[in-house]
Amino acid sequence: MVRQFARIAGIIYLLVGLVGFIPGLLSPPTGPDLAVDAFHGRLLGLFPVNLVHNLVHLAIGLWGLSAARSLDASVGFARGLAVLYALLGVMGLIPGLNTMFGLAPLHGNDVWLHFGTALIAAYFGWGVARTDATRT
């Protein structure tokens, strides 16, 4: 199941990264100003993104697809994603850090999305990973 999680998460992040480059799906941005304003807006009117944010989504998508090739890599992906997204969720709550030093928006609806992603990834990285390991 952890390998499927890595594969599905990889596909989702690749798609979200690509969709972030479609201007018609971006609403005008809200929140703090960014140093990187290319593709800055609210994806589907809900989630703040910009060029850097989209590139990170693409990188995470590639990481997930690559990790899906083995159980150990998938577990590492799930655990790494859990830690990374928990950190991003916390950063989104702190003024100044909620723009990753002006590089990418982490505020608004991204906060709950990041915490939710961290919880799901933790479930697969630490919970499901144990049952997958005992099956092999």
Explain what the structure shows.
- The protein has 136 residues and is mainly alpha-helical.
- It has one domain (2-135).
- It has helices at residues 2-19, 51-67, 71-92, 109-135; strands at residues 26-27, 41-43, 47-49.
- It has a three-stranded antiparallel β-sheet with strand order 1-2-3.
- Strand 2 (41-43) and strand 3 form a beta hairpin.
- The longest helix is centred in the last third of the chain and has 27 residues, at 109-135.
- The chain is globular.
- The protein starts with a helix and ends with a helix.
- This is ABC-type transport system involved in multi-copper enzyme maturation permease subunit.
- It comes from Deinococcus humi.
Number of domains: 1
What is the distance, rounded to the nearest whole angstrom, between the alpha carbons of the first and last residues?
12 Å
Given as residue ranges, the uncertain stretches (5+ residues, pLDDT < 50) are none
- The rounded Rg comes to 15 Å
* Total DSSP E strands: 3
Element pattern in H and E: HEEEHHH
Mean pLDDT: 94
Task: Compute the number of helices.
Answer: 4
Structural class per helix/strand content?
A: mainly alpha
Across the major sheet, the strand order is: 1-2-3
Give the CA-based shape: globular
Proportion of residues in extended strands: 5-15%
What helical percentage do the residues reach?
55-70%
Taking the sheet with the most strands, its summary is:
3 strands, antiparallel
